[in-house]
Design brief:
The chain has 2 domains: about 375 residues, Alkaline Phosphatase, subunit A; about 70 residues, Arylsulfatase, C-terminal domain. The protein is built from 13 helices and 16 strands. Helix content is about 30%, strand content about 15%. A hairpin with a 2-residue loop joins strand 14 and strand 15. By secondary structure, the protein is of the alpha/beta class. The chain is globular, with a radius of gyration of 24 Å.
C-alpha cells in the first residue's frame, strides 16, 4: 500500500485551497466595477496642454497621461461658461433641455440650483454601488438649496460651493460637506481688488497684498487624495472640478520661479477702472505657473492610483468646463496661443469657447497614445460610464447623451445625429453641429435671428460663413435648433420664445 504522509496531504490541500482562492480572487477582480476619476479644469483652453500643442506651459503629467490613453480632439464641454457647462455634465441633458443655461447667482452664496427632480451622474453611479465624492468648485446650487452636492448624489464634498467665492485662491473658508472649514488667510485675499491707493505699479512689493498663506487648491487636492485612500477597497467616483486656471491670478511665488527665469516680456496687470480680478506683477508667468500647478495636482492623483494598485481598474478622464477666458490683460491668450486656430473664447459658442482638451485612460481597455476626432460632448459621459460598467440600461430615459464607449475602447460607431448648444449669456447664442456642418447664431437677445454656417472639416477657424451657398443645409439645421430648444422662464432666449415663433 502506497504510504502518503499526512503532512504532505495537508500541504497539497493547502496548495489546492490557495489556488482556488487565487483563481476566485482573479475572477472577482475581473468583475469588479472600475473606479471613475473625472478631473475638470476651469477655463482651460484647447491648446493649453503640451499634448494638445502648447509650447510655453509645462504639463508633463497630463502629457504623459495622453501617452497612456486616448485624446478626444473634437470633444465639447456643456456650455460656454461654468455653471451651465457643469449642469450638462451632471444631468446628461444638452443646454436646450438643461435646467441651468447660464451663470446666475443666488445671494448670499451659490448659483441657480438643480432641483430634486434632476437625476445626476453621481446619483446614477451611487445606485450602481459607487461611493461618490466631489472636490473643488460646485456652482450648481447654494449651500441651503436643492442643488447642493450632498442633495445631488455625493457622499462627500469639499471645496467652494459658489463660483464667485472661488475667484479667490486664498479665501477665509471652504465647505466640508455642510460645514465651514476656516483657512489660515488673515485677511483673506479677495478675488476682485485694486492696488492700494498711491501704490507704485512698477514696484513688485505693491502686489504683496494679493498673496495669502493657505492656498485653497492644496487643501482640495489633499482631500481628494484622502477620498481615494479611504475608499480604495470599493468602487468610487471621484469628481475633481479644480478651480485652476480660472482667474484671479493667485499662485504661490515658488511656482513662478521657473517661468520668471525664462525672461518673458511680462507687463503687470494693474486692473484699470475697477474691471477684472486682482492685479499681478507678472501675469504671464502666473498663468503658466497655475496650469503647471494643476498638472502637478493631477500627477499626485495618478501617482496615488499607481501606489495603491488601482490604476488598471480606474477610468480617468481629464477635461475643461469651457475655453480660455476672454480677459486678455490678465490671461494673454494670444501669447500662449491658448485656443490655437480656433475662433472664440470663453462665453462663445464658436469652437474656441466650447471645444476642450480631453484625455481618457483605462489601461487594458482604452488604446494607448491614440486620438479620436469623433464628435462628443459632456452629455455623453453619464451614458458612457454606465455602458463601461455594464449598467447601460440604468441611464434615465430623458437624457440627451449617447454612449461613446465603443470609441473609447478603440472601436467605431455611427456618427452622432447632432450636438446642440445654446447659451443665454453674452447676447444669446445657439449652435448645432451635424457631421462637418455647424450652424451658429449670435445676439439673439437683440431680437435678430441670423444663421451662420461653417464646414468645420474645411474651416475649423470658422472664418468663412457659407450659409448663402447652402440654403437647404441651413434650413435643416434651423429646424433642428428649433426642435431642441425648450423655452426656459429663468433663462429665456426671448427672440426664440416669443408667441408665434
Amino acid at each position: 500500500m502506497l504510504q502518503f504522509p499526512v503532512r504532505h496531504l495537508l500541504i497539497c490541500l493547502a496548495c489546492i485551497y490557495v489556488t482556488v482562492e487565487t483563481v476566485a480572487f482573479a475572477e472577482a477582480a475581473k468583475t469588479t466595477k472600475p473606479n471613475i476619476v473625472f478631473i475638470l479644469a476651469d477655463d482651460l483652453g484647447y491648446r493649453e496642454l503640451g499634448c494638445f500643442g502648447q509650447k510655453l506651459i509645462k504639463t508633463p503629467n497630463l502629457d504623459h497621461l495622453a501617452t497612456q490613453g486616448l485624446r478626444l480632439t473634437q470633444h465639447y464641454c456643456g456650455n460656454a461658461v461654468c455653471a451651465p457647462s457643469r449642469c450638462v455634465l451632471m444631468t446628461a441633458k444638452h443646454p436646450g433641455h438643461a435646467i441651468v443655461r447660464s451663470n446666475k447667482s443666488t445671494p448670499p452664496e451659490g448659483q441657480w440650483p438643480i432641483p430634486d427632480s434632476e437625476i445626476t451622474l453621481a446619483e446614477v453611479l451611487k445606485q450602481q454601488g459607487y461611493v461618490t465624492g466631489a472636490f473643488g468648485k460646485w456652482g450648481l446650487g447654494g449651500p441651503e438649496s436643492s442643488g447642493r452636492p450632498l442633495k445631488q448624489g455625493f457622499d462627500r464634498f469639499f471645496g467652494y460651493n459658489c463660483q464667485s467665492h472661488a475667484h479667490s485662491y486664498y479665501p477665509s473658508y471652504l465647505w466640508s460637506d455642510g460645514k465651514h472649514v476656516e483657512l489660515n488667510n488673515h485677511p483673506p485675499v479677495p478675488g476682485h481688488a485694486s492696488l492700494a491707493k498711491g501704490a507704485d505699479p512698477a514696484n513688485p512689493k505693491s502686489y504683496d497684498q494679493f498673496k495669502g498663506q493657505d492656498y485653497a487648491p492644496d487643501r482640495i487636492n489633499a482631500q481628494a487624495l484622502n477620498f481615494i485612500r479611504q475608499h480604495q477597497n470599493e468602487p468610487f467616483f471621484l469628481y475633481y472640478p479644480t478651480v485652476i486656471p480660472h482667474v484671479a491670478l493667485h499662485v504661490p511665488d515658488e511656482d513662478l520661479k521657473p517661468y520668471l527665469k525664462l525672461g518673458w516680456d511680462d507687463p503687470p496687470f494693474t486692473r484699470s477702472r475697477g474691471f477684472g480680478y486682482t492685479p499681478h506683477f507678472t501675469p504671464r508667468a502666473a498663468y503658466a505657473a497655475m496650469i503647471t500647478r494643476l498638472d502637478r495636482y493631477v500627477g499626485k492623483v495618478l501617482n496615488l492610483l499607481d501606489d495603491l494598485g488601482l490604476a488598471d481598474n480606474t477610468i480617468v478622464v481629464f477635461s475643461s468646463d469651457n475655453g480660455t477666458t476672454h480677459l486678455k490683460q490678465e490671461v494673454d491668450y494670444v501669447f500662449f496661443n491658448s485656443v490655437g486656430e480656433l475662433r472664440g473664447l470663453k462665453g462663445s459658442l464658436y469652437e474656441g469657447g466650447v471645444r476642450v482638451p480631453t484625455i481618457v485612460r483605462w489601461p487594458g481597455h482604452v488604446p494607448e497614445g491614440a486620438s479620436s476626432d469623433y464628435v462628443s460632448g459632456f452629455e455623453d459621459w453619464m451614458p458612457t460610464f454606465l455602458d463601461l460598467i455594464g449598467a447601460k440600461n440604468a441611464a434615465p430615459d430623458d437624457i440627451d447623451g449617447i454612449s461613446i464607449a465603443p470609441i473609447l475602447l478603440g472601436k467605431s460607431q455611427p456618427e452622432r445625429p447632432f450636438l446642440y448648444r445654446e447659451f443665454t449669456g453674452y447676447g444669446g447664442q445657439q449652435s448645432i453641429r451635424v457631421g462637418d456642418w455647424k450652424a451658429v447664431r449670435q445676439n439673439l437677445r437683440k431680437g435678430k435671428i441670423k444663421t451662420e454656417l461653417y464646414n468645420i472639416a474645411e474651416d475649423v477657424s470658422e472664418k468663412h460663413d457659407v450659409a448663402d451657398q447652402h440654403p437647404e443645409i441651413v434650413a435643416r439645421l434651423e429646424r433642428l435648433m428649433e426642435q431642441q430648444h425648450v423655452p426656459s422662464e429663468v433663462f429665456p432666449l426671448k427672440v426664440l420664445d416669443r408667441p408665434g415663433k
